[in-house]
Every structure is written in C-alpha cells, then in structure tokens.
C-alpha cells in the first residue's frame, strides 16, 4: 500500500532500531502519565528476539510506515481466538497491541493507513472484529480510534486504595 508521501509494508529485521524507538516513545507516555504502574523504561522496550519472533509469526502482524526511507510509524496486532463456553460466545478477533507514529508525522494519515492495513489483514483471515485497548488519559489515541470508527464496548475503572 503506498501513498505519495509514505509506504506501508511488513516490518523486516533492519527496522528493529526504528520500531524500538517508536515503542520507547509510547511507553514513555505511559510512564509519564501512570508512574505508579509503569517503571521508567530502558532504552530497549521491545527486546530484539521478541521483535524477530513477531515478524516471523503468521498470527501476528508488524507493519511499518516508511517515508523517505525512514520508519515513521508502526502497528503491531495479534489474532485472538476463544471457543466460548456456557456463558460467553466464541470470538475470533484481531487485537491492535501497538500503534505509534512519530510526532513530527502526526496528522498525515499514517496512523489511519496503518489501521486500514490491519483491517485488511483481518479480512484476509475472515475476521470481522478489530479491537484495541487505549488508556483514558491518551486523548490523541481515543480521538484517533473514534475517527477510525471504533466504539467503546467496555470500560475498566480503577481506584487506588491507600
């Protein structure tokens, strides 16, 4: 998938430093907003071995957005399947575990194109549900998902007891 400004493609081993950098940006945001739950992150937030396993696994998707030979965005998604039980329906869905775009490339449609590629990947597997977990403090992410027609289906509430 290409646009005149950027290309969406599967991640390859050479992308590791850039993907790790984008992951670090995301987890720094988590730490800054939830320091009681996230420790300060080391430089490598995504171990290289984990990254290599992801790009080889057919049930996982790691794609990047590339602009002028620079990785400026990443999306990581997995398939989730549950056969159901007496209480719950079975499900088969794609879960977006990570999406990150370099701040200097915000509002250029990169995140939306990454999401569209993930949705196409889900369709190729006959999966009709795509889900994502987003923290309530992350207004940019909440608005991004709303813009891409995601709707909330559950809300997890938290209370700190001292």
Q: How would you concisely characterize the structure shown here?
A:
This protein has four helices and five strands, in the order βααβββαβα. With 162 residues, the protein is an alpha+beta fold.
What is the strand content?
Answer: 15-25%
CATH architecture classification: 3-Layer(aba) Sandwich
Tally of extended strands? 5
Helix/strand structural class: alpha+beta
CATH homologous superfamily classification:
Gcn5-related N-acetyltransferase (GNAT)
Radius of gyration: 16 Å
Kindly report the spatial arrangement of strands forming the biggest sheet: 1-2-3-4-5
Q: Level of helix content?
A: 25-40%
- The overall number of domains is 1
Secondary-structure topology with pairs:
Elements: E1 7-10, H1 16-33, H2 48-56, E2 60-67, E3 70-82, E4 91-101, H3 110-124, E5 129-132, H4 139-147
Parallel strand pairs: 4-5
Antiparallel strand pairs: 1-2, 2-3, 3-4
Describe this structure in words.
- The protein is α+β, with helices and mostly antiparallel strands.
- It has one domain: Gcn5-related N-acetyltransferase (GNAT) (Aminopeptidase).
- 31% of the residues lie in helices and 25% in strands.
- It has 4 helices and 5 strands, in the order βααβββαβα.
- A 5-stranded mixed β-sheet has the order 1-2-3-4-5, sandwiched between helices.
- Strand 2 (60-67) and strand 3 form a beta hairpin.
- The protein is globular, with a radius of gyration of 16 Å.
- The termini are far apart.
- The mean pLDDT is 88.
């Amino acid at each position: 998938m290409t646009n005149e400004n950027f290309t969406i493609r599967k991640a390859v081993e050479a992308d590791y430093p850039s993907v790790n950098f984008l992951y670090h940006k995301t987890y720094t945001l988590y730490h800054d907003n939830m320091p009681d739950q996230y420790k300060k992150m080391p430089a490598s937030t995504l171990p290289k071995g984990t990254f290599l396993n992801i790009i080889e696994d057919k049930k996982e998707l790691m794609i990047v957005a590339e602009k002028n030979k620079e990785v400026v965005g990443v999306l990581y998604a997995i398939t989730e399947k549950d056969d159901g039980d007496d209480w719950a329906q079975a499900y088969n869905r794609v879960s977006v575990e990570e999406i990150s775009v370099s701040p200097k490339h915000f509002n250029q449609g990169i995140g939306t194109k990454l999401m569209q590629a993930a949705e196409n990947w889900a369709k190729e597997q006959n999966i009709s549900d795509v889900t994502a977990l987003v923290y309530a403090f992350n207004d940019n992410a909440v608005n991004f998902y709303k813009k891409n027609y995601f709707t909330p289906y559950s809300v997890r509430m938290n209370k700190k007891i001292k």
